[in-house]
Design a protein that fits this description.
With 217 residues, this protein is an alpha/beta fold. The strands form two sheets. The protein has a five-stranded parallel β-sheet, with helices on both faces. The protein has a three-stranded antiparallel β-sheet with strand order 6-5-7. α1 packs across α9. The structure holds BIS(adenosine)-5'-pentaphosphate and magnesium ion.
């Protein structure tokens, strides 16, 4: 399966990507995660990406496209992949077509995760990520979370820099202006499947897997 997840910041793309990738035995390729690994590793790519990420803006296409081309050309992506966070605008969607065409393949499906604005803001305000294993979880902002650790590996949790409320607001604007046109783009090509991404993590996983199963070979 060659799959793309789309949806606003906080829709649960990263959360569901873990389960979907495992269920269909495909690598999860998250451009946000790759950028964050490069930022924390102090690489040239990370240095370049950081100022855009901190502002909640998209990293320039030429940088992102080259990174994705390189990643999709690696052997583990030959039999399928899940892309989380790419493409992020229509120009990147055309570039993805070109990359896949050069590799002799094409997309199976684009899964659109639908959530409302208030829920996205609620989810992002409590998001924490594990420093050790990268697992994403949610902490209730109204309770005392002192000493709470990763519920997967016990590692230390951190809050992403771009989850500050004013940056979240800007990321949502960027999504509306630049990324949401992808929904019509893929719908017009009959490549879009949408799910309701409200409800528990388990319910959303179940819906996603039921919707995607017909595309697995
Ligand atoms: P990226 O990391 O992709 O961020 P994003 O698209 O803004 O999406 P998020 O990771 O914020 O949300 P998510 O949908 O993954 O939600 P999550 O599962 O964490 O990109 C970051 C930056 O990198 C960009 O701003 C840009 O600068 C750059 N970048 C990346 N790709 C790029 C590209 N292609 N081009 C240019 N620049 C690019 O869930 C959120 C929270 O909700 C968590 O706390 C989770 O536990 C909780 N949650 C999830 N599901 C549920 C549920 N069902 N019920 C209750 N809580 C839930
Ligand atoms: Mg994410």
């Amino acid at each position: 399966m060659r799959l793309v997840l789309v949806g606003p910041p906080g829709a649960g793309k990263g959360t569901q990507a873990e389960f979907i990738a495992e269920r269909f035995s495909i690598p999860k390729i998250s451009t946000g995660d790759i950028f964050r690994t490069n930022v924390s590793g102090g690489t040239e790519l990370g240095r370049l990406a950081k100022k855009f990420m901190d502002a909640g803006d998209l990293v320039p296409d030429e940088v992102t496209n080259a990174m994705v081309r390189d990643r999709l050309g690696q052997p583990d992506a030959a039999a399928g992949f899940l892309l989380d966070g790419f493409p992020r605008n229509v120009a990147q969607a055309y570039e993805l077509d070109a990359i896949l065409s050069d590799l002799g393949s094409s997309l199976s499906v684009v899964l659109d995760m639908e959530v409302d604005h208030d829920e996205v803001v609620r989810r992002l305000s409590g998001r924490r990520t594990c420093k050790q294993c990268g697992h994403v979880q949610h902490l209730d902002p109204d309770t005392d979370n002192t000493g709470v650790a990763c519920d997967k590996c016990g590692g230390e949790l951190f809050r992403r820099d771009d989850d500050a409320p004013e940056t979240v607001r800007h990321r949502l604007e960027v999504y509306a202006a630049q990324t949401s046109p992808l929904i019509e783009f893929y719908k017009s090509r009959s490549q879009l499947a949408s799910i309701d991404a409200l409800g528990t993590v388990e319910d959303v996983t179940e819906r996603a897997i039921a919707t995607l199963s017909p595309y697995a070979n």
